[in-house]
Prior knowledge:
heterodimer, A: mainly beta, 11 strands, B: mainly beta, seven-stranded mixed beta sheet
Amino acid sequence: QKEVEQNSGPLSVPEGAIASLNCTYSDRGSQSFFWYRQYSGKSPELIMSIYSNGDKEDGRFTAQLNKASQYVSLLIRDSQPSDSATYLCAVRGSGYSTLTFGKGTMLLVSP
Amino acid sequence: DAGVIQSPRHEVTEMGQEVTLRCKPISGHDYLFWYRQTMMRGLELLIYFNNNVPIDDSGMPEDRFSAKMPNASFSTLKIQPSEPRDSAVYFCASSSRWSRQETQYFGPGTRLLVL
C-alpha cells in the first residue's frame, strides 16, 4: 500500500514569511513528485514537479527532494494571502503509473 | 482549450437513485482518471483509462460504481444505487503520456450529495 503523509495543518504564517510544507512517502521506488494547490471549492492545479534529489526553484516556490529520506518539501517565499489554500503532495512510481496523493496541508497566510 | 469539462457541477439526489457523472477530457489526452475527494479520505483514485480502455479499477469502492469511456472525448461514472456515504466531490482528470511533465489536469468537479 503506497502512502503519502502530510501534516493536515493548518499552517499559519504572516504575510511575507516563508511557508514550509512537508511530505513523506512510503514507496522507495517512487520516481516523480508533484505539488498541487487546491483553493477551497476548486480543483487541484499543479504548481511544481521534481524528479531528482535537490532543489528546484520556480519563482517564489522551491521544491526539495531527498529520496534517501523519502521526503519532499515545498517552500513558499514571501507568502501572500492569495497563497492560502490546501497543498497536496502527489507521488508517482516508476514508468507511467498513477499518482498517490496525500490528504493535503492547509496553509493560511495572514495579512 | 476549454480544459476538462464535467457535468453536472452539483447533484443532490435521494438514496437509492441512479447518479451519472460526465467528463470530457482535454482533446488529445490519452489518459483519463476519476477521483473522489472527501475530508476523511482525501483524494482517491477510483479508475483510470488509457486510450479509452480501463486499466485499473481497483479503487472503485463497490459494484454499485461503474465507469465507461465509449470514445476519446467522453467518459461516465455511474453510481447505482446511490447511498449517503457516496457524498463527495468527484473529479475527472486527463493527461498525455507525451507531455513534458505528464501533468494531470483536473476538471472543476461534481459535488454529489446523497440524502
